[in-house]
Design a protein that fits this description.
The complex is a heterodimer of chains A (121) and B (107). Chain A is an all-beta fold and 121 residues long. The termini of chain B are far apart. The chains are: A mainly beta (121), B mainly beta (107). Chains A and B meet through strand 5 and strand 9 of A and strand 4, strand 5, strand 9 and strand 10 of B.
C-alpha cells in the first residue's frame, strides 16, 4: 500500500523551530518529488515547499524562503521540513503530498495524514 | 508564478443538481491540472488528474475538462456526500499553486 506517514509538529513559540517528517512507503521514493502543503484554520490549501526525488532540487514559496528548509533521506524514504523563525501566521495543518517529476500523472494522488503546527506564546 | 483563479468561491446546490466549477490559469499549463475534494477535518483527496482523468474509485458523475488556461470540474447529479470544498491545483511548474477553493453547500 502506498502511504505517507507524518510525524513532528506541535506547539512552538514565535521565533522558535519545529521539524516535520514524512515517511513514504509502497513506491519507489526517488521516482517522485514530494511537496508540503499547509492549511491555516478556516482557510484554503497553500503550497509551501517541494523537493525532487533525488533531493538535489528544492523549491519554496516566497513566504517561507530563508526560514524553512526541505530535505530528504533516500535511505529512509523520508522528507523533512525544518521550520525556523516561526510566526503566528505559520499556524496550520501541514500535509506532505507525493508530487511528480516526469509526466502529468503521479502528482498529489497520495497525502499524509496531516500534522498540526501551532505558533503561540 | 502561475496564478489560479477559481470560481465561484461558494455555491448552494440541491441533491440531483449539476454543478460546474471553473479554474483559470494565468499562463498555459497544458493539462498539468488536478482537482481535489476536501471535507471538513479530512485530508484532501484527488478526484481528477491530467485535467480530465478520473481517479480510480471516484464516481463517474465527476468529470473534468479543459487544457491550456481554462478548466472545468462538473459534478452531475450531486449526491449528499459531494457537499465539500473543491480545489484546482496546477503542477506544471514550481511553485505549485492552488485555486482559492469552491465550497459546495446545501441549498
Amino acid at each position: 500500500e502506498v502511504q505517507l506517514l507524518q510525524s513532528g509538529g506541535g506547539l512552538a513559540q514565535p521565533g522558535g523551530s519545529l521539524r516535520l517528517s514524512c515517511a513514504a512507503s509502497g513506491y519507489f521514493f526517488s521516482s517522485y518529488a514530494m511537496s508540503w502543503v499547509r492549511q491555516a484554520p478556516g482557510k484554503g490549501l497553500e503550497w509551501v515547499s517541494g523537493i525532487s526525488g533525488s533531493g538535489e532540487s528544492t523549491y519554496y514559496a516566497e513566504f517561507v524562503k530563508g526560514r524553512f528548509t526541505i530535505s530528504s533521506d533516500k535511505s529512509k524514504s523520508t522528507v523533512y521540513l525544518q521550520m525556523n523563525s516561526l510566526r503566528a501566521e505559520d499556524t496550520a495543518v501541514y500535509y506532505c503530498a507525493k508530487d511528480r517529476i516526469f509526466g502529468v500523472e503521479g502528482a498529489f494522488d497520495i497525502w499524509g495524514q496531516g500534522t498540526v503546527v501551532t505558533v503561540s506564546s | 508564478d502561475i496564478q489560479m483563479t477559481q470560481s465561484p468561491s461558494a455555491m448552494s446546490a440541491s441533491v440531483g443538481d449539476t454543478v460546474t466549477i471553473t479554474c483559470r490559469a494565468s499562463q498555459d499549463i497544458s493539462n498539468y491540472l488536478a482537482w481535489l475534494q476536501q471535507k471538513p477535518g479530512k485530508v484532501p483527496k484527488r478526484l481528477i488528474s491530467a485535467a480530465s482523468s478520473l481517479q480510480s474509485g471516484v464516481p463517474s458523475r465527476f468529470s473534468g475538462s479543459g487544457s491550456g488556461t481554462e478548466f472545468t470540474l462538473t459534478i452531475s447529479s450531486l449526491q449528499p456526500e459531494d457537499f465539500a470544498t473543491y480545489y484546482c491545483l496546477q503542477h506544471k511548474t514550481f511553485p505549485r499553486t492552488f485555486g482559492q477553493g469552491t465550497k459546495v453547500e446545501v441549498k
